[in-house]
Amino acid sequence: MGDLSDDTGRPGSTQDILRRAGTVPPLSGFPPLDGLTAAFETLRERHCDVIRARPVGASRRGEPIVMYSIGRGDASHLVVGGVHPNEPIGSWTALHLAEQLADDDALRRALNASWGIIPCIDPDGYR
Length: 127
Known about the structure:
- There is one protein chain.
- By secondary structure, the protein is of the alpha+beta class.
- The protein is about 40% helix and about 20% strand.
- It has a four-stranded mixed sheet with strand order 1-2-4-3, with helices on one face.
- α2 packs parallel to α3.
């Protein structure tokens, strides 16, 4: 990513990332865990050529923990939501990021990265 003077607006530029951050809709409360899971699955189905899903574990109560993989590139990033069940922003952020990456081929190419996104790492606590 460039410095803040990078105002080209090209995908992946600092200005583009800041603009995208500004597109996060007003949110309040927690996304329901089942709704969060459904949103990720709907996104995966809509972009089955871009998003892969695989279980990476299970909670103590047996809830699956799924990672959604988006893009292929030189850098690797892991984004984890639901780390602290009383902080909903991580899961909201994970969903928004997944939507941005899935919907924009130019952004994925510009960022040249592989993204692993886990919507909720602690489903037991979240529930």
